[in-house]
Amino acid sequence: MDVIYRDGKVFVTTTYEVAQTLRDDGYVQVSVLGVQVLLHRLVWEQANGTIPDGYVIDHINRNKQDNRLANLRLATRAENNCNSGLRSDNTSGVKGLSKRGILYVCNLKFGPEKRRASFYDVDEAKNWLTTNRAQMHGAFARS
To answer: Between vectors from CA 40 to CA 36 and to CA 46, what angle results, nearest 5°?
Structure first.
Protein backbone atom coordinates (compact mmCIF):
# COMPACT_ATOMS: atom_id res chain seq x y z
CA MET A 1 0.00 0.00 0.00
CA ASP A 2 1.32 3.44 -0.91
CA VAL A 3 0.25 6.40 1.19
CA ILE A 4 0.89 9.79 -0.36
CA TYR A 5 0.68 13.16 1.42
CA ARG A 6 0.20 16.03 -1.00
CA ASP A 7 -1.27 19.52 -0.69
CA GLY A 8 -2.47 18.88 2.86
CA LYS A 9 -4.33 15.68 1.94
CA VAL A 10 -3.60 12.00 2.38
CA PHE A 11 -4.10 9.52 -0.45
CA VAL A 12 -3.86 5.74 -0.18
CA THR A 13 -3.55 5.63 -3.94
CA THR A 14 -3.70 8.43 -6.48
CA THR A 15 -7.42 7.76 -7.01
CA TYR A 16 -9.11 8.37 -3.65
CA GLU A 17 -8.72 10.50 -0.56
CA VAL A 18 -8.46 9.33 3.05
CA ALA A 19 -10.67 10.91 5.73
CA GLN A 20 -8.91 13.25 8.16
CA THR A 21 -10.13 14.37 11.58
CA LEU A 22 -8.79 16.99 13.95
CA ARG A 23 -8.41 15.55 17.44
CA ASP A 24 -9.13 17.53 20.62
CA ASP A 25 -5.37 17.73 21.32
CA GLY A 26 -4.77 19.49 17.98
CA TYR A 27 -3.23 16.59 16.05
CA VAL A 28 -4.59 15.44 12.69
CA GLN A 29 -5.64 11.80 12.59
CA VAL A 30 -6.39 9.74 9.50
CA SER A 31 -8.02 6.39 8.97
CA VAL A 32 -6.03 4.16 6.63
CA LEU A 33 -7.76 0.88 5.84
CA GLY A 34 -9.69 1.14 9.11
CA VAL A 35 -6.63 1.89 11.26
CA GLN A 36 -6.44 5.28 13.05
CA VAL A 37 -3.01 6.89 12.55
CA LEU A 38 -1.56 10.27 13.51
CA LEU A 39 -0.79 12.08 10.26
CA HIS A 40 2.60 13.48 11.28
CA ARG A 41 3.83 9.97 12.16
CA LEU A 42 2.50 8.58 8.86
CA VAL A 43 4.14 11.31 6.78
CA TRP A 44 7.50 10.91 8.54
CA GLU A 45 7.44 7.09 8.33
CA GLN A 46 6.56 7.12 4.63
CA ALA A 47 9.68 9.20 3.97
CA ASN A 48 12.07 7.73 6.55
CA GLY A 49 10.85 4.34 7.74
CA THR A 50 9.78 3.18 11.18
CA ILE A 51 10.18 5.58 14.10
CA PRO A 52 12.84 4.08 16.41
CA ASP A 53 11.91 3.13 19.98
CA GLY A 54 12.35 6.02 22.39
CA TYR A 55 11.76 8.66 19.71
CA VAL A 56 8.81 10.82 18.71
CA ILE A 57 8.10 13.11 15.75
CA ASP A 58 8.46 16.80 16.58
CA HIS A 59 6.70 19.64 14.74
CA ILE A 60 9.52 22.17 14.30
CA ASN A 61 7.19 25.19 14.18
CA ARG A 62 4.96 23.79 16.99
CA ASN A 63 1.93 23.76 14.66
CA LYS A 64 0.40 20.30 15.09
CA GLN A 65 -1.59 20.73 11.88
CA ASP A 66 1.47 21.52 9.73
CA ASN A 67 2.43 18.02 8.65
CA ARG A 68 4.78 18.87 5.81
CA LEU A 69 7.86 16.64 5.92
CA ALA A 70 10.05 19.79 6.10
CA ASN A 71 8.34 20.65 9.42
CA LEU A 72 8.87 17.24 11.00
CA ARG A 73 11.95 15.85 12.74
CA LEU A 74 12.88 12.86 14.83
CA ALA A 75 13.33 13.75 18.52
CA THR A 76 13.73 12.18 21.90
CA ARG A 77 10.99 12.97 24.42
CA ALA A 78 13.39 15.41 26.16
CA GLU A 79 14.12 17.20 22.86
CA ASN A 80 10.41 17.35 22.05
CA ASN A 81 9.72 18.90 25.47
CA CYS A 82 12.29 21.63 24.73
CA ASN A 83 10.22 22.64 21.72
CA SER A 84 7.08 23.21 23.79
CA GLY A 85 5.37 26.55 24.28
CA LEU A 86 4.51 28.44 27.46
CA ARG A 87 2.66 26.53 30.15
CA SER A 88 -0.90 27.67 30.79
CA ASP A 89 0.02 28.70 34.36
CA ASN A 90 2.97 30.87 33.25
CA THR A 91 2.60 34.44 34.50
CA SER A 92 5.95 35.91 33.39
CA GLY A 93 5.39 35.46 29.66
CA VAL A 94 8.85 33.86 29.44
CA LYS A 95 9.42 30.12 29.38
CA GLY A 96 11.41 29.02 32.45
CA LEU A 97 11.12 32.35 34.28
CA SER A 98 9.17 33.02 37.46
CA LYS A 99 9.14 35.77 40.05
CA ARG A 100 9.78 34.93 43.71
CA GLY A 101 9.57 38.05 45.86
CA ILE A 102 12.13 40.48 44.47
CA LEU A 103 14.02 37.80 42.51
CA TYR A 104 13.53 36.49 38.99
CA VAL A 105 14.18 32.75 39.09
CA CYS A 106 15.29 30.86 35.96
CA ASN A 107 14.82 27.10 35.59
CA LEU A 108 15.99 24.94 32.70
CA LYS A 109 15.90 21.18 32.28
CA PHE A 110 17.08 18.79 29.60
CA GLY A 111 16.74 15.13 30.49
CA PRO A 112 18.48 14.68 33.85
CA GLU A 113 20.40 17.98 33.60
CA LYS A 114 18.97 20.97 35.45
CA ARG A 115 20.18 24.56 35.68
CA ARG A 116 18.84 27.27 37.97
CA ALA A 117 19.78 30.90 38.56
CA SER A 118 18.27 33.95 40.28
CA PHE A 119 18.53 37.60 39.31
CA TYR A 120 17.28 40.95 40.57
CA ASP A 121 17.02 42.25 37.00
CA VAL A 122 14.52 40.68 34.59
CA ASP A 123 16.68 41.43 31.52
CA GLU A 124 19.66 39.64 33.08
CA ALA A 125 17.38 36.67 33.78
CA LYS A 126 16.14 36.62 30.18
CA ASN A 127 19.71 36.81 28.84
CA TRP A 128 20.78 33.94 31.10
CA LEU A 129 17.85 31.85 29.88
CA THR A 130 18.58 32.56 26.22
CA THR A 131 22.27 31.67 26.54
CA ASN A 132 21.80 28.55 28.66
CA ARG A 133 18.80 27.31 26.67
CA ALA A 134 20.85 27.47 23.46
CA GLN A 135 23.67 25.51 25.15
CA MET A 136 21.40 22.86 26.64
CA HIS A 137 18.69 22.48 24.01
CA GLY A 138 20.64 23.14 20.81
CA ALA A 139 18.41 22.98 17.71
CA PHE A 140 15.37 22.36 19.95
CA ALA A 141 15.80 25.62 21.94
CA ARG A 142 12.59 27.69 22.13
CA SER A 143 11.77 30.73 24.21
So the answer is: 90
60: left (phi over 0), alpha (psi -120 to 50) or beta: alpha
CB of 82 closer than 8 Å to CB of 110: yes
Domain co-membership, 12 together with 59: yes
Q: What is the pTM of this model?
A: 0.77
Q: Is residue 116 domain-shared with residue 135, that is, in the same domain?
A: yes
Q: Is 96 exposed, middle or buried (0-12, 13-18, 19+ CB in 10 A)?
A: buried
Identify the CA nearest to 106 among candidates 132, 77, 86: 132
Q: How many residues does the chain have?
A: 143
Domain count, the chain: 2
Kindly report the backbone phi and psi dihedral angles of residue 138, in degrees, each rounded to the nearest multiple of 5, phi listed first.
Answer: 55, -130
Backbone angles phi, psi at 124, to 5 degrees: -65, -40
Q: What Å distances lie between residue 71 and 19, 41, 48, 60, 76, CA to CA?
A: 22, 12, 14, 5, 16
Separation between Cα atoms, residue 26 and residue 63, nearest integer Å: 9
Q: What is the mean pLDDT of residues 26-32?
A: 89
Residue 114's pLDDT is: 95
